[in-house]
Write a structure and sequence with these properties.
The protein is an alpha+beta fold and 155 residues long. It is 25% helix and 32% strand. It has a single domain, classed as Aminopeptidase, CATH 3.40.630.30.
Length: 155
């Protein structure tokens, strides 16, 4: 059965103003408002990232950033957000599976790194990620660095 959403991956400069606004609004709604965390979402890294979006009839359901391997040698997934209006539909899992597949396609043989909010450790473990750090605070929220080996098939 085909997914009930479209997948879109693009660079920041390829967004229309309306699409960019929708993505930044979703991230602000989730990370700043919902999580009551005052931090600078616009961190200067969006320009170097690829932006993965799940859409339905043009409506943004979920999004994430993908980064090419950096100094650590691993690709990176970040700013994973699902619209509050579309929770409970396994879109977070669909988004992450798509992000993993996209990283594996674009950056073969590389581990994939994430900075996971600690309460989501079980979710990310089920996708093959393992903790590689102690818990730490980032913008007042508990996080753990996690890595997914490059030779692992997406479960």
């Amino acid at each position: 059965m085909a997914p009930a959403y479209d997948i879109d991956v693009r660079s920041l400069q390829d967004f229309s103003a309306v699409d960019l606004y929708a993505m930044l609004k979703l991230r602000g709604d989730v990370f700043v408002v919902e999580q009551a965390c005052a931090y600078a979402d616009l961190d200067g890294k969006d320009i170097e990232a690829l932006h993965l979006r799940l859409l339905s009839a043009g409506e943004l359901l979920a999004c994430a950033r993908l980064f090419a391997p950096g100094a650590s040698g691993g690709a990176r997934i970040g700013r994973v957000a699902v619209s509050p209006d579309h929770r409970g539909k396994k879109l977070g899992e669909a988004l992450m599976r798509t992000a993993i597949a996209e990283c594996e396609r674009r950056f073969p043989g590389r581990v994939i790194e994430i900075s996971a909010q600690s309460y989501l450790l079980g979710f990310y473990r089920a996708l093959g990620f393992e903790p590689v750090s102690q818990e730490y605070l980032e913008d007042g929220i508990a996080h753990v660095d996690m890595v997914r080996p490059s030779d692992m098939a997406c479960r």
